[in-house]
Amino acid sequence: MTLAIMQPYFLPYIGYMQLLNAVDTFVFYDDVAFINRGWINRNRLLANGRELLFTIPLKDASQNRLINEITLSDEPKWRDKLLRTIEQSYRKAPQFAEVMPMTERIIRFQGDTRSDVSVADYCFHSFSELTAYLGITTRLVASSAIYENSHLKAQERILDICRQEGAERYINPIGGTELYKPEPFAQLGCELRFIQPRPVAYPQLGTADFVPWLSILDILMNNTPAATMELLLDFDLIGERAKE
């Protein structure tokens, strides 16, 4: 079984989706500290030929709180505003009619109306919609739901999740090459690999010069599900085996 663990991001770039699609089980690391000005609640679209940063507003966001403790803003108009921005930016895109209904379900999601929805649950729901649309069968799990190991830190917690899941391969984003070494994983019978997205390009609405690494929403608006799935395979797995 192949496993990956990542903080939940909202409508992330293609590399995140490549990692999710490459594994059997994907763990959303939602009971770790929130990162201000990270990618948990924001990403980039293409508007009028230029990249546009959008942000999901949060209440009392702080790096002293866990991701699953932070809830969405009560401000009533931000969902409508974001949906208008997306519609204005992509209404002429070839897949707009197919993708916009899913996009609206994602952005209007409010969870259990008896309580505030956390940014972790909001992201989790968005991935449920995205994987269903693309036909991705990866099992999605929140780290806060089952592992009961929040007392562990850093690599020890990652290793414990691998152990509990019986993972035979753990794939991490390429940025983790300085953080993780293969030997501790090998002791669990688990192979460590790092995913390296290749530069991708596709016909992009509204610009002659391709703008890379935008939200997956830009890819979906410009490509069929089948073409998107081909792009999700455009990566390399790298890493050395553990030393004998």
TrEMBL record:
Do you know which InterPro entries this protein is assigned to? Answer: WbqC
Protein name (record): WbqC family protein
Question: Which organism is the protein's source?
Answer: Fibrella aquatilis
